[in-house]
Amino acid sequence: MWFSDPASIQPHHSCRSMPKPELASNHSHLNQQGATVPSSQGARHEFARGALRAWVYDRVLMGLTSGWYQQVLSRLPQGASVLDVGIGTGSAVARSANLVREKDIRIVGLDIDRDYLTHCEKVIRRAGLSDNVTPRLTSVYDHQGGPYDAVYFSASFMLLPDPVGAIRHVLSLLAPGGWIFFTQTFHHGKSALIEKVKPMLHRVTSIHFGRVTYEVDFLNVLEESGLELVEFLTMGSTRRASYRLAIARPLANDKPQTMAAGSI
């Protein structure tokens, strides 16, 4: 049982036995902003643009998401294999580099943004996590791998065009007894203005924040996907929104369990 007796956990290491994959790509879903351009000047422009986008991403999000990763990684057992859906620039997981190495956690990190993944590879190397973290440029819907002891959606879940389809797919990659983690911003009350503005923020920041997420909509998606919510923790809040960690498992599992921070 993951959340009560860490000594009893037998992580699934089939991911570790696989050769370390190269940076993958699936052109039906990818951001092509990093594509090759004919002139060296154009290439330098694209490189600078990609670097700027990665810098903005880290400046805006890392202060928040690095704490989210710490919350999730601290709950994982020794030697866990993890699918990280939406790894972004990798800077948030790099902030927990010591924890990742100490626990020998193996992470396959997916993202569909070429600029972010290019930066992610550099960040992971500088953090000394090349043996632990494998960035892959591909959509969650196309990814094949595992089995994984855990799947983590870091603020990426409600960005997806088909959240239910994403969960059903990753459930097929989840090891028996595995868990799914979500960290997400939830807005407290309906706001037509925020619902309209939030999806357009990428035009200013270059970051896709997705649609506004309300608790009832999130819980409905989990139910439709065949997940049971086990823990729903508030990590921080403002007047209008809260930042939460949700921990779920497939409904097929029996015997209710709960998780407390640091319990596994």
Verbal overview:
This protein has one domain (39-250): Rossmann fold. The protein is 35% helix and 22% strand. The protein contains nine helices and seven strands; from the N terminus they run ααβααβαββαβαααββ. A seven-stranded mixed β-sheet has the order 3-2-1-4-5-7-6, sandwiched between helices. α6 links the parallel β4 and β5. The protein is globular. Residues 1-38, 193-210 and 258-264 have low confidence and may be disordered.
What is the gist of this entry?
With 264 residues, the chain is α/β, with parallel strands linked by helices.
List keywords for this structure.
264 residues, alpha/beta, Rossmann fold, seven-stranded mixed beta sheet, 9 helices, disordered C terminus
Instruction: Give the helix level as a range of percent.
Output: 25-40%
- Mean of residue pLDDT? 76
Q: Report low-confidence residues grouped into runs of 5 or more.
A: 1-38, 193-210, 258-264
CATH topology: Rossmann fold
- Measured distance between first and last alpha carbons: 9 Å
Question: What coarse outline follows from CA principal-axis ratios?
Answer: globular
Question: Strand order of the main beta sheet, please?
Answer: 3-2-1-4-5-7-6
Give the count of structural domains. 1
CATH architecture: 3-Layer(aba) Sandwich
